[in-house]
Amino acid sequence: MIGLSKIKDRPHLIKVLKNGGWLIFDAVLRGVSALVVGTWIARYLGPEQFGKLTYVLAYLMFFQVIANLGMDGIVIRDIVNLTPTKNQNKDESCQKDKEVIKKQELRNSRNKIEIGRILGSAFILRLIVGLLCWVIAVGGMSMLYGWNSENVLLTALAGGCLIFQAANTIDLWFQSQTQSRRTVLVKLFAFIVTNGLRVAFIVGELPLLSFAIAMLLEFLITAIALIYAYRRMPCGSSWTLDIKNVGLNLVRESWPYIISGISVAMYMRIDQVMVRSIMGEKELGIYSAAIILSSMWYVLPSIACTSLMPTLTLSKSINHDLYLERLTKLFRLLLISSIFISIIVAWQSNILVEFFYGDKFSDSSKVLKLLIFTTIPVFLGVGQGAWLINEKKSNLFLIQTLSGGAVCIALNMILIPIFGLMGAATSLLIAQFISTLAINAFLEKKLFTMQIGVYKKIK
């Protein structure tokens, strides 16, 4: 009860918790829907066609990371620093000095203009880079398979998301104001509509290209809905492009995050690209089916960490040892739950694959038995997010992702030709453990001991 009373006395914390609640709701609904509709699509298309679709999406993921420019957290931070709190406004409005109030109003007006420059610069940069990435992605696919290849058309259609995702800049404004509810509702609307279309495409037995169109429509509808939502809650000034004072600074600070994002995409998706290149589309379809069933659990640590992040941050400001103890308990929970899930899914992999995919994907069960153990490093990797942010260890994250990407590529080149799909699964599993745990064991022993559930002070 004491904890509840403290929360009630902190209106800002309540706002943060509600904001996190909407993000959790979005993650759960998306996870369940993606599992149901995604497995249905795979079952309808069959291993070969599903493999072709998965290959194009994995290929586009690298360009999505680049087009995003890795500046989400930077933009949110800068806007938050320019946004006056309600307490500030209230305190200053009580002052009798009209000159002070006038200066504050002028400063707020200038800050709104600066926010407009930040949002406008981020949006234009993303739009330009997104368009360039789309051209390069389509051109690269045509160089690999020729302009008449279906892969090129799939890339051109689904790759439209690279352009429309620039509208997610609006989401950064809402996040900075702890108004994620608006974004969640908008994106869920687009998600539900396009998932309904996907189901209609399956029932109507439409061809593979239809599902690429559905992806394009999801990003287009999301962009339109975000613009509508923004008009109901604008930042108070026009968006303008300021490359010299804003744009270049954003790019200078965001480049490590771009590299980290590419590295994450590499060791999360390069196995699929290499399976397609070495073994073919049918084998990739079988492999990707196992990935869906193994990655469906990844939403759980995100929910736990999103819920506990405000508490962890607050405890750090009060008592650092208490903060580390609570973080250790979180890691212990993530470790135990991930091991439990891995054992159960590996044990029941045959039944799960048969239920979701049918006989055509029976070989996926063998891959799933191994891939499901990536749940352990993924859970612990998500859990370290709170520590990385609070301790300002972005360089460690960069080292982790670069190491994971390099190991994954090297192992895939060696193991896929020898062991096939099991080689790809083994490469991903080893890369995940190296990135999430082994690097910490050498560079951040305190974090490593917390990850394995043992808290102790290390000088």
Query: N- to C-terminal separation?
Result: 36 Å
Which outline best applies? globular
Q: Which structural category do the helix and sheet elements fall into? A: mainly alpha
Domain module count = 2
Strand content: under 5%
The H-and-E topology, N to C, reads as: HHHHHHHHHHHHHHHHHHHHH
Spans of at least 5 consecutive residues with low confidence: 90-94
Mean pLDDT: 81
Biggest sheet details: none
The total of beta strands comes to 0
Separate helix tally: 21
How much is the radius of gyration in Å? 23 Å
Classify the helix fraction into a percent range.
Answer: over 70%
Descriptive labels:
459 residues; mainly alpha; single chain; 21 helices
Task: Give your account of this protein's structure.
The model is unreliable at 90-94 (pLDDT under 50). This protein has 459 residues and is mainly α. The chain folds into two domains: 46-241, no CATH class; 256-459, no CATH class. The protein is globular and about 80 Å long. It has helices spanning 2-8, 11-68, 72-82, 86-93, 98-145, 150-158, 161-164, 169-176, 180-203, 209-232, 243-278, 281-295, 299-318, 320-347, 349-356, 364-371, 375-383, 385-390, 394-419, 421-443, 445-451. It contains 21 helices and no strands. Helices cover 84% and strands 0% of the residues.
How is the topology of this model organized?
Layout: H1 2-8, H2 11-68, H3 72-82, H4 86-93, H5 98-145, H6 150-158, H7 161-164, H8 169-176, H9 180-203, H10 209-232, H11 243-278, H12 281-295, H13 299-318, H14 320-347, H15 349-356, H16 364-371, H17 375-383, H18 385-390, H19 394-419, H20 421-443, H21 445-451
Helix pairs in contact: 2-5, 2-6, 2-9, 2-11, 2-12, 2-13, 3-5, 3-8, 5-6, 5-11, 6-10, 9-10, 11-12, 11-19, 11-20, 12-16, 13-14, 13-17, 14-16, 14-17, 15-16, 16-20, 17-20, 19-20, 20-21
